[in-house]
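Section 3.1: Structural characterization of target chains.
Under the original work plan, the team committed to producing a structural model for every single-chain target entering the pipeline before any wet-lab resources were allocated. The record below documents one such target. The sequence was received from the expression subgroup and is listed exactly as submitted; it comprises 239 residues.
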Amino acid sequence: MGQNTQDIHLNWYNKQLTEIPETIWNQFQLETLNVSENYIESIADQISQLANLRMLDLGHNKLKKIPSSIGDLKKLDSYLYLHNNKIEDLPGEIGKLELLRYLNCSNNLLTNLPSSIGNLKNLIEFKLANNQLSDLPKEIRTLTSLRYLDLSGNEFKKIPVLPPTIWELNLRNNKISQLPLQNYPELKKLDLRNNQLNSVPESILTLKKLEKLDLRWNQLETYPYCLDTLEKRGCIIYL
């Protein structure tokens, strides 16, 4: 007989927890652990004992760091949610989560990412909104499964080098003043609202699959006529 779903899925969402009870570390069969919307300030190294975890939600707590033992959760193949905490950096061991598909680190205090992030070859969605990032490690370009990247609300002054396979890029609320557009043949949606752009280069026409471009709340000095070509292709443009 199969295990009871209550045995493998534990939901302690919004339980007023200030720490994760030690009894959890002995529940080796757990595949899902949700302790979001609590007041947890730290995660014990023993989290590595939950070797069968596939989904882990630590969002909306008071975490300042993530233990390096997170890298032992090698079966995490769905999501890891770390959003809305006070995390200042990610351990290099996060790169060991090679099956991970969804990673949310939004609303933290990150200023950089470890180069090991380039090992997350199965990552589809990466959310980094509202941190303090101004650049990304060059290794991120190797994330060829990545489709959605949210970098809104950071300190970027230009678009970082990204995987050529990306579909949707959100750079709203940054300090971007130039658009060095690399080869992004699959890019469909580009959000550049509220940056410091004063022009749009014709190289934007290399984005052959672009369906939506948002340029509102920038400082464009003249109308970029290259946008007419994009519109003729069917791209929806917001100015």
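The helical segments are 5-8, 226-232.
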